[in-house]
């Protein structure tokens, strides 16, 4: 028997269009044409002008043969050009590949070749680095120089030389404002390419689609509590998971992008106070920069600023200082493979009444699935069965939904492994609490097995962060003849603080079982990526090779 709800009710152009974040900007230019879309130094640009320039750039790229199947790579800071390429490149049907500005030339060359880069847009801050990368790469893209007119006069270094054959503004001006974007044939069409950190071997290319990027626009607004015309400060690098998709998100509500080339305390406070910034994102290091800034660099502001942070949950002391400074912290969790944040610690009002220790335990949870994620689970990776929701049984955190990547570019084996059993395997170990909130316990490779006992490095790090003298820390396994492995703590102290290894160990013993406490303490700067993530692979190597 036929189903009447599926008979003569076919999709057609009137009732079905592929989802794409590009429609967000089109609407903003129509509804908020004169509202300020971006601020950069002395520059103020309206949505009308922003949209027009994106169409011009797309037109110019199309004239160079850029379209479906092409890759446009960019080496840009958080500048207006970086916002423009996020819209203009996919307008042509091509894929945007934003390069990490902190990588070395060899890794950049690998990415350019692997992505088969056709056009490369380069900020002059990075021209020498990119010149070296191109010398190693096999591809020979059209290179376009971006000369930021608001490059700070007090920059600690001069801009590099032009290395391309075209200037960005001249190239853009050659395009037409009448360009009609090429809508995705299917919302599954690729929109961007992001590479994993590549801590072991070559990095993997993570491919996003238009559907996921569009849905993230709505989900980010809900998770961040954004109202109409938010003002967003770019402290998160836009090359990192496409800035968690916020370059596309803000247009939904006609928001204002405040560009920021470098994350510096004074520049952040000035932007917050002068432009009434409502939202910003970043790793815990950005919070540390704000609250530890000299008084001379701080500014007073009367409004509350929402700060979205990922990575390890901030210690209670940091959260308290952020609240005192006027920031409301929202804790997120995700991966490059999930378009950035896919889990949010949805705070419940009742938790405000808990004692400080209980509040800290609640804040340590990563949380529940993002509004755009269909399912979040903690499972046994061998049996693929969910672990008990008891807050104790450890399993692998797994994702399922429309904000999970398409897969790894040109790497079917890695894609198949990541999607085994119909779930995306994060590689993160965690527990599921009875109320449905997940909490990370470690990366699978970061669990320390000492004398047959599993030790969570995150648990030890949480204890370390409770010491007021510790600014940053990381715990890794150190080989031990008797125990197999023991915890080794790398500790970075706050400026002016003094602490001995014995004092660190005694502090941990007051909070943890003795077998979980560090046997070794190393005082040094803790290495971090450009996005503030601690580079544990460097520390693991140090611990293995001797200290």
TrEMBL record:
CDD domains: ttLC_FACS_AEE21_like (cd12118). Residues 459-533 form the AMP-binding enzyme C-terminal domain. Keywords: Fatty acid metabolism, Ligase, Lipid metabolism, Metal-binding. Residues 25-409 form the AMP-dependent synthetase/ligase domain. InterPro entries: AMP-bd_C (IPR025110), AMP-binding_CS (IPR020845), AMP-dep_synth/lig_dom (IPR000873). It comes from the Bacteria. Belongs to the ATP-dependent AMP-binding enzyme family. NCBIfam families: PRK08162.1 (NF006020). This is Acyl-CoA synthetase. It comes from Pseudohoeflea coraliihabitans. The lineage of its organism: Bacteria, Pseudomonadati, Pseudomonadota, Alphaproteobacteria, Hyphomicrobiales.
């Amino acid at each position: 028997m036929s189903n009447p709800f599926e008979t003569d009710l076919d999709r057609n152009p009137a009732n079905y269009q592929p989802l794409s974040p590009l429609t967000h900007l089109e609407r903003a230019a129509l509804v908020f044409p004169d509202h300020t879309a971006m601020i950069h130094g002395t520059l103020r640009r309206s949505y009308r002008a922003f949209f027009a320039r994106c169409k011009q750039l797309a037109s110019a790229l199309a004239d160079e043969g850029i379209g479906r199947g092409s890759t446009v790579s960019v080496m840009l800071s958080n500048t207006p050009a970086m916002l423009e390429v996020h819209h203009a490149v996919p307008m042509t049907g091509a894929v945007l590949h934003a390069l990490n500005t902190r990588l070395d030339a060899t890794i950049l060359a690998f990415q350019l070749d692997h992505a088969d880069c056709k056009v490369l847009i380069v900020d002059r801050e990075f021209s020498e680095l990119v010149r070296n990368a191109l010398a190693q790469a096999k591809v020979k893209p059209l290179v376009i120089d971006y000369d930021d007119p608001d490059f700070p006069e007090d920059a600690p270094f001069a801009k590099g030389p032009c290395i391309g054959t075209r200037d960005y503004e001249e190239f853009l001006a050659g395009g037409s404002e009448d360009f009609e974007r090429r809508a995705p044939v299917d919302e599954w069409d690729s929109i961007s390419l992001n590479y994993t950190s590549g801590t072991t071997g070559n990095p993997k290319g993570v491919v996003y689609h238009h559907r996921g990027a569009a849905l993230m626009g709505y989900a980010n607004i809900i998770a961040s509590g954004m109202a109409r015309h938010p003002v967003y400060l770019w402290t998160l690098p836009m090359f990192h998971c496409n800035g968690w998709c916020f370059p596309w998100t803000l247009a939904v509500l006609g928001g204002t992008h405040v560009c920021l080339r470098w994350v510096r305390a004074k520049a952040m406070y000035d932007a917050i106070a002068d432009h009434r910034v409502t939202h910003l994102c970043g790793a815990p290091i950005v919070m540390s920069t704000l609250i530890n800034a000299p008084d001379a660099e701080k500014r007073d502001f009367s409004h509350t600023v929402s700060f979205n942070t990922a990575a390890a949950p901030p210690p209670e002391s940091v959260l308290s200082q952020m609240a005192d400074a006027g920031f409301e912290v929202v804790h997120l969790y995700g991966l490059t493979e999930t378009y950035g944040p896919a889990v949010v610690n949805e705070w419940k009002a009742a938790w405000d009444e808990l004692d400080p220790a209980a509040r800290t335990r609640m804040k340590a949870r990563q949380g529940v699935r993002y509004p755009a994620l269909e399912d979040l689970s903690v499972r046994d990776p061998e049996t693929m069965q969910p672990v008990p929701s008891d807050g104790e049984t450890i399993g692998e955190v797994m994702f399922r939904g429309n904000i999970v990547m398409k897969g790894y570019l040109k790497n079917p084996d890695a894609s198949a492994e990541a999607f085994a059993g119909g779930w995306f395997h994060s590689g993160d170990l965690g527990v599921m609490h009875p109320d449905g909130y997940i909490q990370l316990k470690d990366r699978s490779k970061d669990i320390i097995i000492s004398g047959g006992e599993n030790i969570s490095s995150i648990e030890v790090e949480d204890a370390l962060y409770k010491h007021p003298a510790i600014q940053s820390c990381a715990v890794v396994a150190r080989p031990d003849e008797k125990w197999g492995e023991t915890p080794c703590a790398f500790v970075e102290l706050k400026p002016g603080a003094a602490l001995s290894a014995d004092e660190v160990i005694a502090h941990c013993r007051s909070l943890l079982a003795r077998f979980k406490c560090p046997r070794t303490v190393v005082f040094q700067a803790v290495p971090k990526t450009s996005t503030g993530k601690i580079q544990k692979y460097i520390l693991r190597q140090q611990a293995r090779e001797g200290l």
